[in-house]
Structure formats: structure tokens, C-alpha cells
Amino acid sequence: MSQTMETRYTHSPEDIRHYTTEQLRKEFLVEKIFVPGEIMLTYTHNDRQIFGGVTPTNEPLEIRLSKELGVDYFLERRELGVINIGGPGSITIEDKKDPMKKQDGYYIGKGTKDVVFESDDPTNPAKFYVVSVPAHHKYPNVKISIDQITPRETGEDLSMNKRKIYQYIHPNICESCQLQMGYTVLEPGNAWNTMPSHTHDRRMETYLYFDMEPDTRVFHFMGKPDETKHLILSSEQAVISPSWSIHCGVATSNYTFIWAMCGENITYDDMDFVPMEELK
């Protein structure tokens, strides 16, 4: 089994003021998430979130982190969210095996020892996107299918942001300590994931952009409202968005993304919208 975990550190807005494009990408963009037969993780010091891809092929894969986290096993003091964006597979949690088709998700609570990921077909592997954050309490493990979720429909064609938001790990669906996770699908002809942009000082966020054509690119905006920066992403790349940063993006065509948040609360609508005239 091959497992890699890269560490990313936190930055103040003043740190990035004079960053080159290369520096900005190095600190906030994760270019490789899914590698067949491997586990690729990133540990960000922004609220100590761990995120990445588990892509089993011929052999099952299991995340093994103990010494790195100062614990005996990975989820001793953490909770975990999973969404499969690839081929059909399965997750075995402490001898209980569940099938995981594309768009199936799972919430796995603190104290769960054994979590094994498998693909049904090595030539069409499952792509498990995983997000883990520190947890103080054990909540029940819950399998979550997109078929169980009534999407929140928002936006309009006129402003190019008509989209469906599927809330997976959210108080409406299951309990968690601080992790929130969901799946947003933009309708054809729409490109903005949100505008006006917003910040949420009480929570950081990571985004995985995917289900994009090879030539489609996302322009992900970040930075303080009066000092915006941007990163350009292709399909199946992720970005770290600090709590002080604006959260918004636009692409050359419609796309899908997974958002994952953690921090002070689990109130999805705890956002501070930025008036258009304040953006620079």
C-alpha cells in the first residue's frame, strides 16, 4: 500500500499579499488527489483538517495514521466523511461491509478502528474523497446516498449560478462534531458557485472540483474582499480556503464540487456576504 500525506501551514492575509502565482498554488492548491492504488492526503493546519483521495485498485486500502497524529489509530480522536466520485466499490467498517456506488457517502464517527476501502473493478476504480477533522464525541456511523437527500435548489440562469446543493454531513442528515460536507452540482449553462461572495470567519473550507471536461477550468477566488487572488484548477483538484478568505468561483463550463467545512459551529448559513462594491 502506498500512502502519502503532505502538510500545509496556515497564513495570514498579509503573508499572501505579494505571493507569486507559483507560491499561491504551492500553498493552497492540491493538484493530485486520486492516484490508482494509492492514498493521497493533505494535512492543513487550518483547523487541522485532513483531506484527500483513496483510490483502491487490485488491493483494499486503509488509512493508517497514528504516530503522525499522536494516537494509536487514525480515528481515535477524529471523525471522517467520505463521498465516492468514481466507480462502484465498498467500505468495510469494523467487519460491516457496505456497497458504495458513485455519489454514495458515509459519516464515520470518532473511535472507529477499522475502515477498509475497495473497488469492484480495478479498471474502473472507486474514488473515495475523504475529509477528517478532530472530534470530541462519538456519533453513529451513517451511510448517506445522494438518493436520500432532497437538494437545496438555489440561484438562477440569469446570474449563471443555478445549482443543486446536496447536504451529506449536515444536521439535517446526521450528527457530527464539527465536520460539514456536501456536493454541489451546477446546471448546464451555469458557472458561478456563489456570487455575491462570502466569508465565514468561524469556519475554514476545502473544495474538490470534478466532473469537468478536460479543457474546462475553474477560477477559484480567494483572499480578503479588498485584495482578491485567484487559482486556476482542472478536474479532480482541490483548494484550501482559509476562514478569512472569500469563497467563490467561476468556470468555463458547468461543474460539480464537494465542499467540506469545520470550525466553531455547524450552522451552514453562518456566512458574511460581501457587497459587490467592496470587492477589489
TrEMBL record:
Pathway assigned to this chain's UniProt record: Glycan metabolism; pectin degradation; 2-dehydro-3-deoxy-D-gluconate from pectin: step 4/5
GO BP term, pick one: D-glucuronate catabolic process
Claim: Zinc is one of the keywords in the record: yes
Residue positions binding Zn(2+): H198, H200, E205, H247
GO molecular function: 4-deoxy-L-threo-5-hexosulose-uronate ketol-isomerase activity; zinc ion binding
Catalytic reaction annotation: 5-dehydro-4-deoxy-D-glucuronate = 3-deoxy-D-glycero-2,5-hexodiulosonate
Cofactor: Zn(2+)
Keywords: Isomerase, Metal-binding, Zinc
Cofactor note: Binds 1 zinc ion per subunit.
Enzyme Commission identifier(s): 5.3.1.17
UniProt entry tagged with the keyword Metal-binding: yes
PANTHER family, alphabetized: 4-DEOXY-L-THREO-5-HEXOSULOSE-URONATE KETOL-ISOMERASE
Similarity comment text for this entry: Belongs to the KduI family.
Cited function: Catalyzes the isomerization of 5-dehydro-4-deoxy-D-glucuronate to 3-deoxy-D-glycero-2,5-hexodiulosonate.
Name of the molecule in the record: 4-deoxy-L-threo-5-hexosulose-uronate ketol-isomerase
Species per Swiss-Prot/TrEMBL record: Heyndrickxia coagulans
Gene coding for it: kduI
